Amino acid sequence: MLKGLLFRPAKRTVGIYYFSSRSTQIEVKDKNPYKTQVKPIDLSFETKKLYETFSDVHDDILNQQLVYYKQYPDLRQTYSKLLHYTMHLEPRYIGRGIFSIYAYKLLEKPELFTEENLKKACVIAWCHKLMDATIIVEDDIVDVTELRYNKPAWYKVEDVGEHKAILDAAFLSSSMWFLLLKHLSTHKYFPNIMKQILTIFSVCNVSERIDITQHRIEDLEKHTYSAKGVALAMPVLRKALYLANIDVDAHKATEEFSIDLAYFLKFEDDFNGVFNPMSDEQKTCTDIAEGRPSWVPVQAYKMGNLAQKKILEEHFGKNNEESIRKCYELFKELRLEQVFADYKENFYNKMYAKIHQNLPKILPVKLFLDYLNFCLTTGLRV
């Protein structure tokens, strides 16, 4: 269930990015950039660097969290298993962290793009995943989720269970703060970075509270636009800005862009949960059976005639095979897969135009285009 904007495009020479001082108010000549501009982003360097730091981050966490438990080697092994199981995943499941390193690379002054500062970017990236993992472990218990990342949810692992998993989620959360304090406490914008993480953590938890409340189909739309998606998109760019010592003047446009993107990602997550529950997200989805706020039933109710609305009113949120089947049949009848495909294309074209027309000069267009492409190709999976 967990389920616009930067300078002109960069011209790269020997690893250094140069940005034009010309206005970004340019005409977008491509009338349908979705068909010509969407492309994957090469993040192999960032992925390699992130995985290289996992061992140090792993040891930092265990050394600080277990400082008073050195006489219990089995405990260290237990928490090591937790970190590997919930953090050290395929690149597509740590994409936010990977892209945040890429964003920092584009934003930082070349003379400050050092190994030491790159490691700080990697630490922040792992903090992204620790926040995700904290919420996911708890979310899977609440949702009674069987699978996550195509393997048993953490609380379903042998000798874990719900009670230990709840405590493990707290361990993951405190690990994030220990890492930030150790590696970034002297940074000029450390309070801003901490506030970003706390804000997103709070937003996600409050949104979870909204999501686990069953709603009538007639009232669903107002809850579907919760701030939950903001937790997916906003911190990736803003923390990179702070790490590169770019002040608050650049943050308003970045936040506006991120919020727009966040709602798309939330709706895409809703869509995949219904139509592609195991092909990409690798998790079980119970949104329809439990009456959760979701883009799919909202669109169905808006588009349906009186008879179709009646079907949803009678069957949405009912956890039985017949009701779930009737909802899915209606979604197919209304061709919601094509509706989402059209929405995705229109969204990309709108955001592409915003990037080229509305960005402050201090922010590189390339970064925002790459982030948009990243979200619509690889995506921000948690």
Quaternary structure state of the chains depicted? single chain
Order of helices and strands: EEHHHHHHEEHHHHHHHHHHH
Strand count: 4
End-to-end separation in angstroms reads: 10 Å
Largest sheet: 2 strands, antiparallel
Q: Class by helix and strand content? A: mainly alpha
Question: Residue share in helices?
Answer: 55-70%
Keywords: Magnesium, Metal-binding, Transferase
Pfam families: polyprenyl_synt
Pathway: Pheromone biosynthesis
Family: Belongs to the FPP/GGPP synthase family.
Helix-strand blueprint:
Blueprint: E1 11-13, E2 16-18, H1 33-36, H2 44-52, H3 54-65, H4 73-86, H5 95-107, H6 115-143, E3 147-148, E4 151-152, H7 161-184, H8 190-211, H9 220-224, H10 230-243, H11 251-275, H12 287-290, H13 295-303, H14 306-315, H15 321-333, H16 336-358, H17 365-376
Helix pairs in contact: 3-7, 5-6, 5-10, 6-7, 6-8, 6-10, 8-10, 10-11, 11-16, 14-15, 16-17
